[in-house]
Amino acid sequence: MMGTSICYLNGKFVDVAKARISPLDRGFLLGEGLFETWRTYRGRPYAIAEHLARMTRSAGRIGIDFDPDEPWQERSVELARRNRMLDSDGAVRMTITRGRGPVSLVLERTEDPTRLMLFRPLEPGLGAAKRDGVAVHLVSVGSGVSERQRQIKSLNYLPAVMARTQARERGCFEALYHLDCGKVLEGTTSNVFAVKRGVVRTTPISMGLLPGVTRHKVIKLARSLAKLREEVLTLDDLAGADEVFLTSSSIEIVPVVRVGRRKVGNGRVGELTRGLQRRYRENVARELDLPIELLGE
Ligand SMILES: Cc1ncc(COP(=O)(O)O)c(C=O)c1O
Hints:
Layout: E1 6-9, E2 12-15, H1 26-30, E3 33-41, E4 44-45, H2 48-62, H3 72-82, E5 90-97, E6 114-121, H4 126-132, E7 134-140, H5 158-169, E8 174-178, E9 183-187, E10 191-196, E11 199-202, H6 213-225, E12 227-230, E13 233-234, H7 235-240, E14 243-248, E15 252-259, E16 262-263, H8 271-288
Helix pairs in contact: 6-8
This protein binds pyridoxal-5'-phosphate.
């Protein structure tokens, strides 16, 4: 597949078809690992420092050694170069695991944690999704969030795979998690915002959400354009919103025009969402020192 033929694995760039990970890797056996995905524009990683910081925090919490000061930025650029992605946009997915260890549930430090970076193309149809807006599907995660441990980006994405698959089967771009009581949390790999009468709202991280890098950037941008409140969103808020949008590193800002069967607002992409999309892009172009028209989808 274009852009994914070479990966970085434990210090070397290798052909994906030849890369090998031990059957005793605890990431494989127990999901004992973490991942981060950052976007690249013309091969240049965006907000990599924030992603490495989140990985370092999460690694610390589960006792995996991770050094953010290794030359990850240079490796990310080299990975894009080797995958011939310096003239277009994509994303880098970094996975780290505890590495080889005993087949036991007890947490032990290992000598050789696994570090993998894969290049991946952007989602097909992302440009149309950003322009025209998308539908989202609602998935209940029960009555509590404590077991979900969303604040670390661990490898345990099975619920996300199931929810996203259900969403796609219904023609929806993303699935949004909510509690039985109607509180809305986040998407499977995105954060969610709603706009009502010019006020932008998003559920606080303290509800057990992943602290999205893009969420943080969009909160700052939204504060410069409108009123912003970090408050728990409910299903009723989504149903009554004028605008809803999703954020994540690889998709940036994607407008939502339908939640389940209901239209959002008048069913068209709202002005505030458009304004945020533009401002976000301007910031990317400025921070990466790239002409804005060179940024892809
Ligand atoms: C559960 C979850 N929430 C939110 C996000 C968005 O985070 P970011 O903006 O850092 O990409 C992700 C990203 O994959 C995620 O997995």
